[in-house]
């Protein structure tokens, strides 16, 4: 009789059927993810595992265990600077330019240390952070050590997922084979490799709101918020009200922020001319959508960090940060 593969037990737990299956515990998820990260899983098993989780929707304990495993495998540098904000960027943009990046750069220019991480190319016909950085002349970090060095010298760094965890990038790239996104699209956003006290999260589908917040709570995250952003990126949709769910030192609460941009200024960008980003930064292009997306995103980040007492206070500070940027040069351009 053929001996059962060690990973089979985890597929059985989640895939035994509607009555007998159950989510993995945090420890089970940690063990399963550790096997995946160390290439100790058959490709057929990996595909089955990923698709079952995708169909059923990930559980917070499964997410926490998966993140535990990823963090356990990270080769972190010895001297990591204190980071203010962890900023995942994995969705890409299809209807508007990535104005969130200008928001992050303006915040960095004001003294806030931001570690941005993400992936690109897993969904066709989208603009990703690495493309926008290249257009702005900003180099990506080449490793966690390089990211830490850049953050010591300045206040912004972007590192792609393949430099954080090549295996996770390989799994994310399976979308073209499986036909659906994998749980890595959810779990990678939660890694927070440098243990920033504040984490921004964004969703496209409302079902993932609680997963992010519950998982952050299990991981002991001090401050995080999650909201529905433009195209799934951390970017305020200013023409629509936004519900922001917070986790602050274990306390959960929500805020409903009103729309502040006329709908006629929020039409989809059919050109997606990435060269406009420099013009928006320099003040040459002052399209209402761009400015509202930038200041609205900054406002949410400031509120999360506890630097603003209300929506109005956050917006006022955000407008000041944007107005005080050095318009003649993009930060960290080389």
List the defining traits of the structure above.
Transferase, Pyrimidine Nucleoside Phosphorylase, Chain A, domain 3; alpha/beta; single chain; 12% strand; Pyrimidine Nucleoside Phosphorylase, Chain A, domain 2; 334 residues; 2 domains
Overview of the molecule:
- This protein has helices spanning 8-15, 26-37, 43-56, 60-73, 99-109, 129-136, 144-153, 161-164, 166-172, 175-178, 184-187, 208-218, 276-282, 288-304, 311-323; strands at 85-89, 114-118, 156-160, 198-203, 223-228, 242-248, 251-257.
- By secondary structure, it is α/β, with parallel strands linked by helices.
- It folds into two domains: 8-73, Transferase, Pyrimidine Nucleoside Phosphorylase, Chain C (Transferase, Pyrimidine Nucleoside Phosphorylase, Chain A, domain 3, Up-down Bundle); 85-161 and 191-323, Nucleoside phosphorylase/phosphoribosyltransferase catalytic domain (Pyrimidine Nucleoside Phosphorylase, Chain A, domain 2, 3-Layer(aba) Sandwich), CATH 3.40.1030.10.
- The chain has a seven-stranded mixed β-sheet, sandwiched between helices.
- Helix 2 (26-37) packs across helix 4.
- The longest helix has 17 residues, at 288-304.
What series of H and E elements makes up the topology?
A: HHHHEHEHHEHHHHEHEEEHHH
- The shape is globular
User: Helices and strands: which structural class?
Assistant: alpha/beta
Radius of gyration: 20 Å
CATH topology of the largest domain: Pyrimidine Nucleoside Phosphorylase, Chain A, domain 2
Quick take:
This protein is of the alpha/beta class. It folds into two domains: 8-73, Transferase, Pyrimidine Nucleoside Phosphorylase, Chain A, domain 3 (Up-down Bundle), CATH 1.20.970; 85-161 and 191-323, Pyrimidine Nucleoside Phosphorylase, Chain A, domain 2 (3-Layer(aba) Sandwich), CATH 3.40.1030.
């Amino acid at each position: 009789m053929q001996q059962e593969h060690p990973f089979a037990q985890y597929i059985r737990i989640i895939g035994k059927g509607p009555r007998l299956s159950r989510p993995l515990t945090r420890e089970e998820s940690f063990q399963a993810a550790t096997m995946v990260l160390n290439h100790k899983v058959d490709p057929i098993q990996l595909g089955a595992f990923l698709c079952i989780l995708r169909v059923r929707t990930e559980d917070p304990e499964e997410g926490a265990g998966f993140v535990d495993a990823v963090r356990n495998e990270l080769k972190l540098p010895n001297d990591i600077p204190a980071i203010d904000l962890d900023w995942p960027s994995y969705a890409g943009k299809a209807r508007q330019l990535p104005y969130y990046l200008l928001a992050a750069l303006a915040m960095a220019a004001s003294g806030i240390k931001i570690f941005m991480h993400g992936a690109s190319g897993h969904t066709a016909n989208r603009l990703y952070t690495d493309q926008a950085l290249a257009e702005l002349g900003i180099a990506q970090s080449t490793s966690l050590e390089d990211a830490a060095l850049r953050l010591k010298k300045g206040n912004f760094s972007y590192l792609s997922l393949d430099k954080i965890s090549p295996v996770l990038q390989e799994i994310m790239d399976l979308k073209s084979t499986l036909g659906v996104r994998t749980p890595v699209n959810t779990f990678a956003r939660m890694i927070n490799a440098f243990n920033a006290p504040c984490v921004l999260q964004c969703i496209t589908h409302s079902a993932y709101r609680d997963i992010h917040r519950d998982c952050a709570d299990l991981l002991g995250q001090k401050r995080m918020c999650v909201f529905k952003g433009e195209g799934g990126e951390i970017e305020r949709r200013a023409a629509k009200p936004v519900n922001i769910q917070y986790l602050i030192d274990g306390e959960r609460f929500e805020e409903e922020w009103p729309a502040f941009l006329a709908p006629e200024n929020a039409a989809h960008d059919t050109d997606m001319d990435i060269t406009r980003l420099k013009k928006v930064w320099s003040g040459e292009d002052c399209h209402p959508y761009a400015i509202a997306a930038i200041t609205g995103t900054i406002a949410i980040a400031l509120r999360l960090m506890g630097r603003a007492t209300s929506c109005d206070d956050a917006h006022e500070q955000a407008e000041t940060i944007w107005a005080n940027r050095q318009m003649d040069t993009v930060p960290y351009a080389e």
